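Input chain follows. Return C-alpha cells only.
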Amino acid sequence: MLRQSNGASAKAHVTHRCIHTVHWTSEAHIKRNAHLLCCMNAVTASCTCVTCLLLHTCQQARCYTFSGKPASEQWSSVPELGAADVDWFHMDSFLKLTPTAEAQGRKAMCIKAIKQNICDHTLTSLRSQVPLPGGVECQNQQNVLPRATVQAINLWGHDKCVSLPLTSCPGNCSGHGVCIDSCFPEDPNRAPWCECHKGFSGHECLEVDTSLCLNNCSDRGNCIRGFCHCKPPFFGLDCSRSQHVAARPDVLPNRSRPVVYMYELPHSLSTRLPLDDDVPDEVSIYSSYLHFLSIFLGDWATRTEDPWAANLFYIPAFTYSYTSNSGDPSPYVQRVMQHIRTSYPFFNRTHGKDHFMWLVGDNGACDLSLEASNIIKISHFGYHADVRIQGPSQMGRNAADPVHGCFNPARDIVAAPYNDLGQADAQNTYAEIVASKGAAPNREKLFFFAGGVRPENTHYSGGVRQAIAEMLKQTFNVDKLDGQYDDVVFIHGSTDNYRELYNTTKFCLAPHGSGFGIRLSIAMVHGCIPVIIQDHVYQPYESIVPYDEMSVRIAKSEIPDLLPILRGISEEEQSSMRLKMAQYYKAFIWERSHEGEAYNYTIEALFKRVHAMWGELY
C-alpha cells in the first residue's frame, strides 16, 4: 500500500519538516525516514534544509542558497525570478553542490535509488512509467551500485512542476501555502495556483479548515490549524474536559467494565500536522484511529476524567501523522513513552500492560522498538511468528519475536481498518441475505480477486497472490492471467466493476499486501464469503469474531487445492456462513451513521486484554 501524495506542496513544507527534524530526531531516524522527509516531498528547497536531511534516499535534489546570509536566514520562501544574490544547485548524496541554471533549479524533482533483485527488468519497467534523467544507467553487479536502479521520482508524476515565489500566486497564498506552476503539460495556459498548508483552504489559502479539529472542538473553542483553543474552563484535544481530579492512590479500579482514562499529551506530541509535512491524514484506510478517537471522546460511559479509577489508559499518539504508512514510528513513540513515564504515576504500576496505543501503518507494530513492547498495541496487521520455528522475518526488526514482535495475540489487538467501499449499502445487502435465509442465487461466480500481484516481489502478500496467479495459469492453461475463466475472476490491477464483482461472487480472496490488507473488510460488507490466505496473521477481533463459522481459511501451501476446496463447500454451508456474517459484518464498519460497531468491538477487545492481565495471562 504505497501512499502517494495528492500534489502538495513545495519548499515551505520541506523546510518545516527539516527544522522539526533537527530538534527531535536522530541521524539514524532521518536515514530510515528520508523517503518521507525528502522524496515524498520532492520539491525545490533551501540547500540548508536538504543538507540536514542527509539525502539518504534522495540521491539528488535541487536547491538554492542566498549569498551572504547565515544558515539561520536561509529558511525563506522560494526566491523571486531573477533575484540577485541567489545561487541554484543540484546536490548529490555526498552533499556535493553542483551549480545549475535557475530554470532547472526550480523544477521539483529528486532522484531516488531503488534496490531490486533484477536490474534490467526494473529498468525496463521504469522506462515504461517515467523517463529516466539523461545519463542514468542501470548498474550491473560489478559496478558501484550492484543490483540497483535509479528512478525519477516526482510528487506530481513528471519532471514539470516549478516552485514559484508567493508573489506569483493569488494573494501571495495569504502566507499559508506554496505557489506551484507547470504541473500539467496538457494545460500550458493554466495560471500558477496555491497549494495550501494544512489547516487552510481556498483559492488564496485564506479560509480556515476546521476538519482537522476533533469534534469541532465540541463547540467550546476555536479551531486554528488543527488545534483547539478551548474556552475556560474547558481543555483537552476537543475541549471536552473540564475537571482535574486530585490524587487518590488508594482507589481500586473497576473490575466489571472498561473504564478508560485518556492522557492529554502536550501539543508537541499530539498534533496531527507537524506542521507542513505533506502527509495527508485523510487517507481513509489509515483513519480508523481517528474514528475511534472521535467516538471515544464523547463516550462518557467508558471514558473517565479520573485516572485513579481507570483500568485502562489510552495513549492518543498520532503515529500516522508523524510517520505516514511506512515510516518507523519508534523515535516518535519513544518520546511519547518518555513523557508518559515521567509525567504520570500510572505506567510504572503495571509496566504499561494496561496502556494502549494505535499503530495504523502498513506493518502495524512490526517496526516498533522494544521500549513500548509491554503496552497493548492496536493495529491492522496481526503478524505473529516465532523465529525459533519460522526463522527470521522480513516484516520488521523484532517481527519474529513471539512476545515482543509485530503482534502478541495474548496482549495486542487487530482492529478493522477503515473501509468506505460498500458500507452504505451493507444493511440492505444483509437484509436480503437474512430474508433469503442465506441463499444467494445471484452469486454465480465462484471466486474473485482484483488487485496488485507484483510477481517480481515474492515478499508482497507473503507470496500468496503470486502463487494463486501461477496456479490459475496452469489450471486454465493461459500465459497471461487477467479476466474471467469459467466461474473464476482474477484481475491483475483495478476494474470498474469492482463492487459488482463482490456482489455477484460466492468467495472473495482476502490476502494481505506489503502489510495489512483491506479486502477482508470489503468482502464482509458485500456479503462475499472471505477466503483468508494469510499465514501467521491474525484477523480483526479474532478473540470475538467466529471466523471458523463465516470464512474459509487456507494455508499458502494449500493453494494448489484452492478451487476444489471452494467447490466442495455446499450451498447449505455457504448459506450458514452468510447468516453468520450477517451477525458480525458491523464489526468492520466504523461509521455510526451506517450502524458500524467497530468501535464497540475494539473496546470489548481491550477489556478482554486487561481482564487477561489481571489473570497474569501475559
